[in-house]
Amino acid sequence: MSNSYLSPYSRFFQSDLTIGLRHHPVAFVSLVIFAILCLLAAFAPLLAPFDPFDTTQIDILNSERPPFWAEGAEPAFLFGTDDQGRDMWSIMLYGLRLSLIIGLGAVLVQTLIGVSIGLISGYVGGRVDSLLMRLADIQLSFSTLMIAIVFLALTQVVGGRAFFAQYAPFLLIVIIGLAEWPQYARTVRATVLAEKQKEYVDAARIMGFGPVRIMVRHILPNSLASIFVISTIQIANAIIAEASLSFLGLGMPIAYPSLGSLIASGFDYLFSGSWWITTLPALLLVVLILVVNLLGDWLRDSIAPQHVPEAG
Amino acid sequence: MIIYLAKRFIQALLVLAVISLIGFTVQDNLAFQQGLNAGSAAAYNVETDAGFLTKYFQFVSGAIQGDLGTSSFFKEPALTVILKKMPATLELIFAAAVLVGIFSVPLGIFTALYPHHTISRLILSVSVLGLSVPVFVTSILLIYLFSVTWNILPSFGRGDVVPIVGYWETNFASWDGLKHIVLPAFALASVMLPLFVRLIRAEMRQVLKSEYVKYARARGLSPWRIYFVHALKNTLLPVVTVGGVQIGTLVAYTILAETVFQWPGMGFMFLEAVNRGDAPLIVAYLMVVGAIFVVLNTIVDVLYSAINPTVNLARMAA
């Protein structure tokens, strides 16, 4: 590296990450598609020609119209309509929005809990550490999806459907978020254990900094790369979990368009020839997850240190 | 070793206690609600006069004796209902596991041996795709292709099953039963396969760099013997561990696959019970699956320590 001054802009374009991206067409295309999907989700209320929450815009007589390239299509409905007469394009946009919100929200919860527990576990050590890591082992031995299915089913049965429908997005974020913290906790703990021995931490302690400041400002930055890589894969997993739960009827209620519940409602019409109700949302879902996974793979190969676990 | 086993056993018991506490709380709560709904709160109060702890111990002692309440839909003991459905789920998991075993080992070894071969790149690309397609989408796709479009395989149910012992009826003894299990088993295997191919590939690449593989080559052993006997053995250790952890995920996936294929197993039964509000059955499923999880995980941990003597048992249990 030369010592000459670089503007933040050119520094960004000359960073290893950007150069790596330009030489990796798959990752580049994935990033572009992911950005487009995020924009579509963010501006869904503006882009959607119909409002799926406005019942006056839904006409049952318009139900099961095929997409524009098929015979019998209605020009107003670009990708056709579903079994209730809702515009597929509009509900898919809202579903995408929901998948991304729940995916990102759940990963945020996971990161907050996991990183805090990992820092405490590694920094404090001793009994606290072994107790927390035991808990992580137990938590990991139960699959996230299983925990989420059981807890959502129980809330639905105990709390009643109306209660459930009201808090569904919040419940999904919290449950998917709570079930996956050990992934972060283990990685952060490993970094803390490695860094704690080093002299700069001793120096910080001698300078009188408190444990919280040392943990967050001095030790945590060392594991940011790993956290970033894990987060990408976890977003994909959270989106899969949300879609699976909504497909089972344990996630978002039917009135809220979610990709999972759309696929479920379209599945009933697959045999009668209305393939688009299930296929189009499924395609969107797979593209979204695939793009995030490909980005995660590329990130792991390019910036991650060795100890980030393969998939999972 | 004995200290480790004891600690592991106590941990398993603690987890089971927590699961039973959750199950009990739900059942207690629901019994109360249903009592209110039926307008017979008075009748309910007679039998629930006892304190929380007393009732909890009644619940646990009943559960240990196999009494998990009566399903309000089937009008049968909940445990009997689950035991009747269990063979279907176990056969599905077994078939999926066989498929994963058959395909993951050769594919994993091939991609490790020839990382730059076109076929390897293809396998790895497909494995990313496989990780990205949720199991219910795979199931629907399989049904759409094989049942709706080509009409060569059945899309739902178990078909002709042959009774063996007790509640156990098998799919593997008749042509029709085999045809019915193909699609769900492939759907389940498709989610596990990419994970195992990648894992075996990663482990194999590590092992192939090791000194003893070089030594085996220098001794002039045939490459096949080196790959499949010497190298594979050490690859399988992490595969066993991950496999143990993944069994939990597999149980969750069976709920999805069974729902799509209307496979009459525990998962499908559980979802129907949720939709019907059949509380005793839901709680019983939770207890049975929880117990299976705990027992399997304990076995895998103990097995792992038995295969890998370098693991410091006492420290791990601390």
UniProtKB/TrEMBL annotation, chain A:
Species classification: Bacteria, Pseudomonadati, Pseudomonadota, Alphaproteobacteria, Hyphomicrobiales
Keyword Cytoplasm: no
Cell compartment(s), UniProt: Cell membrane
Transmembrane segments: 26-48, 98-126, 138-158, 164-181, 224-255, 275-296
Name listed for the protein in its UniProt record: Peptide/nickel transport system permease protein
Domain of life: Bacteria
Topology of the protein relative to the lipid bilayer: Multi-pass membrane protein
GO biological process per UniProt: transmembrane transport
InterPro entries: BP-dependent_transpt_permease, MetI-like, MetI-like_sf, OppC_N
Origin species: Maritalea mobilis
Keyword Transmembrane listed: yes
Family: Belongs to the binding-protein-dependent transport system permease family.
From TrEMBL, chain B:
Gene Ontology BP annotations: transmembrane transport
Top-rank lineage group of the source organism: Bacteria
PANTHER family in UniProt: ABC TRANSPORTER PERMEASE PROTEIN (PTHR43163:SF2), DIPEPTIDE TRANSPORT SYSTEM PERMEASE PROTEIN DPPB-RELATED (PTHR43163)
Family: Belongs to the binding-protein-dependent transport system permease family.
Membrane topology: Multi-pass membrane protein
Annotated Gene3D superfamilies: MetI-like
Protein name per the record: Peptide/nickel transport system permease protein
Location within or outside the cell: Cell membrane
Sorted UniProt keywords: Cell membrane, Membrane, Transmembrane, Transmembrane helix, Transport
ABC transmembrane type-1 domain boundaries: 86-304
Gene Ontology cellular component annotations, sorted alphabetically: plasma membrane
Record field: transmembrane: 92-115, 122-146, 181-200, 235-261, 281-307
UniProt-listed Pfam families: BPD_transp_1 (PF00528)
